[in-house]
Every structure is written in C-alpha cells, then in structure tokens.
Design goal:
The complex is a heterodimer. Chain A is α/β, with parallel strands linked by helices. Chain A is 35% helix and 26% strand. Chain A has two domains: 2-79 and 156-237, P-loop containing nucleotide triphosphate hydrolases (Rossmann fold), CATH 3.40.50.300; 89-150, no CATH class. In chain A, the strands form two sheets. In chain A, strands 6-7-8-3-9-10 form a six-stranded mixed beta sheet, sandwiched between helices. In chain A, β4 (55-60) and β5 (63-64) form a beta hairpin. By secondary structure, chain B is mainly alpha-helical. Helices cover 85% and strands 0% of the residues of chain B. In chain B, α3 runs parallel beside α6. Classes of the chains: A alpha/beta, B mainly alpha. The interface between A and B is medium-sized, with 23 and 17 residues. The structure holds adenosine-5'-triphosphate and magnesium ion (MG). The site of magnesium ion has 5 residues of chain A, from α1.
C-alpha cells in the first residue's frame, strides 16, 4: 500500500503539484488521469523518489520515503517496476539484455534462468523475434512493450506505468491494459498508471484520481465516473 | 559566477562520492571496465600514434634548423626531442587532444542517457547509476592512459628517426646517441603520472557534466562543451602545479 499525504512540488517557482492526498491499495489498478501537462508524470516521479517533494510525505506500507537511507531506498526500488513515458530502454543493450539488466544486479540467477525469465516476460507482452535487436531498431509501440516486460522482470510489488498505451494501436493497447490488470490481480501488485486513454480508464480503472493543474479534484471508481459532478472532470470526459 | 563555480565544485565532489561507492557486482564492473577500455583507450591508439609520429618528425626538423651553431653537438637534436616529448608533449598535449575525443564521447553518451530517462530507469532498479556508468570509464582512463603516453613517446621518437634517416639532417647514429643521452627514468614516471591525472580529470568531469545534463539535445551539447572547456583549463593548471611540485 502507498499513501501520499499533502504533497507539494514546484519547479523554479512554478507550483506543479498542490496538496495531493491519496492512497493506493494492492491488487488494484490505480489510475491517475488528467490533461497533458497537469502534473501526472511529476507526481509519479515524486512518488518513486526521483524528485524531492517540497513538503508532504509518501509512505510505502509503514515506511516513510523521505526518512529512508540510501540503502533502504535501494532495497525499496528493487521491489518497484517502472515504465517510463518514453520507455527509457538502454541504448547500449539488446532487448533481451535490457530485460536481464535488473536481474543482473538484483538476483544471483544463472544466465539460463535469466534468459528464460526474460523470454517469459517478452512473451507476456507479445513481443516475438526481437531478442537481439537494439531499442533504436524497434517501433515506438514495441519499445513500450519491451519497457513493460522490463518493469515486470523481477515480479515487483509496486508497478508504475507512465502512459503505458500512448502510441499503441487500439488492439495492442487493450492487450497491454489487460496484461497490466491481470498481473496486478495475479501477484497482488500495487499498480499506479498514468493515462489519458479513455478506453483503459473505463476498462481497468479500479481507483481513479483526476488531476487538474496539479490538484486532485476527484477520486472514485470507473463506475462512478459518469455520475460525477466535478465540472473539470465532466469536461475532460466530454460529458455534457 | 563565483557562486556557480563553487556550487559545481561541491556538486562534483558529491558526484565523485556516488561514483566511488563499492560496485554492486564486481563481475558487471569488470565487464564494463573491459568495454570502456576498448572504447576509450584502444580506440585512441591510432590517433595518438599518428599525431606523435608527425609531431616527432616535425620537431626534429625544427630543432635541427635552429641549431646552426657548429659548436653545439648535433646529437643535441635527439636529446632535445626526447626531452620535449617526455616532459610535455606525450602527456599534456596528448591529454589535450584526448580531452576532445574522450571528453565529448563520455559526456554526450551519459548526457543523452540522462535526457531520455535511462539514468532514472537505472536508479529505479536500485542500481547506482553514477557508479555503473562513470566508474568503469574513470578507472579505465586513469589506469591505462600512461600506456598511451608511452606509445606516444615511442612513436614520437620513431617519427624523428624516420625524418632523420630520410633527410639526413643529422646522422642516425647521432640521433640515437642523443636519445640515450642523460636519460632520467623519473621523467617518464612524472609524465605517466601527469597523463593519469589528466585522464582522471577528463573522464570524471565529462561524466559529471553528462550526468547532470538537462534540457534536451541542446543540453547535451552544452554539457559536452562545458566539460571540454573546463577540462582543458584544468589540464593546463594542473600541468603547472604538478611540474612545480615534482620537478623543482
Ligand atoms: N523537470 C522539470 N522542470 C521544470 N518543469 C517541469 C519539469 N517536469 C515537468 N515540468 C512541468 O510540470 C508540468 C507537468 O508536467 P508533467 O510532465 O507532469 O505533465 P503530464 O501530466 O505528465 O503530461 P503528459 O500527459 O503530456 O505526459 C508541466 O507544465 C511541465 O512544464
Ligand atoms: Mg506525462
């Protein structure tokens, strides 16, 4: 479980996140939705400690992120899988090596075990025959899927996805949604997904938080989306 | 401006502290070390050899044409060439050349990983990204660069010899004799030490600038320009300091 309390974050005087308080429970697809530039990526990066918050606290279970030492943070991060908005695959490594990278550092598996696990992850995201290719040789959608495969390589407890299906065709996009939702339930992961894709919000959003200009304006499940009275959300969803 | 300078020095020290943490896995470090040695050192061999060969040849002609006085032994041409090469050219000048090659390579590589979130992705896996990326480069450049200095010396002398034997400005025997004259082993050590120090500066500052690059591809360009300017100035500065300390 992850709890965010009164989180503020600004860049060079510009207030990006304002007083965000939210809780993410395991086994659910927690979604952060909002228009482009509303602060979703900043929220996610603050959540995992890549940005220092101005004030407020972030709790992983009963551990306070701000109070963690370097080694504790490192341990925590090994339990986190993260898909970046631009995939962030390593240019210097092939697809297979990319997925094996976290295993190289965090496990003592044999090479055969690592390859087997990597192939399994690639299979789950439906990428075939790209093992020896470099990221620059892949299409954007394939990079994304390899990014997801890398994020789930170590069976993380926490899975963060920044726009997992932007730039994918509708079919692959729904496959990815199903995959994320499936593994979330299967391994009881705490999953947080940034998105502005209507289909995925409606099909897998268990706990949805709507962010507008850095403020959390609405929170609820996908079933209560349409009955919202929040005007900004209605505008975002284009309900009249 | 001064505040900015002090801040960067502080940040640089913190960066080095991160870099010199114990590697997570020595096996991975070793693998990276070999790869970096090939990329940084081995790939510079040809450049260093060619430059040294030509400069060696040119210096011989210049020195010989400046020593017209019949009372000065022609052997001194070889002697002076050797001293110039060992004392200054093979370490400082070669390091300045390498600053451009190695420095821009390192800072643009790390910088572009920074702006495409690859470094964040590494951090997120609980990997010490600064250590993983910079440590093998720094160790490899620092430890192996004296070999480049020796190579440069050898090829510089060879270049001189080629010119001497082709043009006959002085006798080949005189040249060889000059090269052997008053040989001080300590100077070679001094030069190797300088080279090592300079390559440490090159690799660490270039890594540092790349690691904190920001602002897209323009930022990567700025980072590597900044790195090379800083490195060049520091090489000259440290050259002065080290020479004063070790030779005087
Ligand atoms: N490193 C940074 N430095 C300064 N400002 C930043 C930085 N990162 C983000 N911002 C600003 O924060 C705001 C929110 O950006 P963010 O990337 O979180 O948007 P987003 O909701 O993820 O949008 P999108 O859906 O397009 O990805 C933007 O106005 C952006 O200019
Ligand atoms: Mg974003």
């Amino acid at each position: 479980m992850i709890r965010i309390e009164h989180l503020y974050k600004s860049f060079a005087g510009a207030q990006i996140l304002k007083d965000i308080t939210i809780e993410y429970s395991p086994g659910k697809c927690n979604m952060v939705i909002g228009a482009s530039g509303s602060g979703k990526t900043v929220l996610l990066k603050t959540l995992i400690g890549l940005y220092e918050p101005d004030s407020g606290s972030i709790w992983y279970g009963d551990e306070d992120l701000a109070a963690m030492t370097y080694d504790q943070k490192k341990k925590l991060r090994q339990r986190i899988g993260m898909l970046f908005q631009a995939s962030a695959l390593f240019d210097f490594a092939t697809v297979l090596e990319n997925i094996m990278f976290p295993m190289d550092f965090c496990t003592d598996w044999s090479k055969a075990q690592k390859i087997e696990r990597a192939r399994f992850c690639l299979d789950r995201v439906n990428v075939k025959g790209a093992d020896g290719k470099y990221p620059s040789e892949l299409s954007g959608g394939m990079q994304k899927r390899v990014g997801i495969a890398r994020a789930i390589a170590l069976n993380p407890e926490f899975l963060f996805c920044d726009e997992p299906n932007s730039g994918l065709d509708p079919y692959t996009s729904s496959l990815i949604d199903e995959l994320i939702s499936e593994i979330t339930k299967e391994y009881n992961m705490t999953t947080v997904i940034n998105t502005h894709d209507m289909n995925s919000i409606r099909s897998i959003g268990d706990n949805i938080g709507f962010i507008c200009d850095g403020m959390l304006l609405w929170q609820g499940s996908r079933d209560s989306l349409d009955s919202t009275s929040c005007p900004q959300l209605r505008k975002f969803l284009r309900i009249r | 401006m001064i505040k900015e300078f002090i801040e960067s020095v502080g940040q640089y020290c913190l960066f080095l502290k991160m870099v010199f943490r114990k590697p997570e896995k020595w096996k991975i470090f070793w693998r990276q070390f070999l790869a970096e040695s090939e990329k940084l050192i081995l790939s510079s061999v040809l450049l260093v050899c060619v430059i040294s060969l030509f400069i060696g040849g040119v210096l011989v002609i210049q020195i010989a044409s400046n020593i017209e006085n019949p009372f000065i032994d022609r052997m001194n041409v070889g002697y002076m060439l050797r001293e110039i090469l060992i004392l200054e050219f093979c370490s400082t000048i070669v390091a300045l050349i390498l600053a451009g090659k190695m420095g821009s390579n390192i800072s643009s590589e790390i910088g572009s990983m920074r702006i495409t979130d690859q470094i964040d992705a590494m951090d997120m896996m609980g990997v010490n990204s600064a250590g993983f990326l910079a440590l093998p480069k720094i160790v490899s450049a620092t430890l192996l660069s004296p070999l480049l200095m020796l190579l440069s010396l050898a090829f510089g002398l060879l270049g001189g010899w080629v010119v001497v034997s082709l043009t006959g400005i002085i006798g080949t025997n005189q040249y060889i004799e000059g090269i052997k004259y008053c040989y001080t082993g300590f100077y070679v050590f001094y030069s190797g030490f300088k080279m090592s120090l300079f390559c440490f500066l090159i690799s660490s500052i270039a890594s540092f600038r790349g690691y904190y690059a920001s602002g897209g591809s323009l930022g990567v360009g700025t980072a590597s320009t900044k790195a090379i300017v800083t490195i060049s100035i520091l090489i000259l500065l440290f050259d002065l300091v080290v020479t004063q300390l070790m030779l005087y």
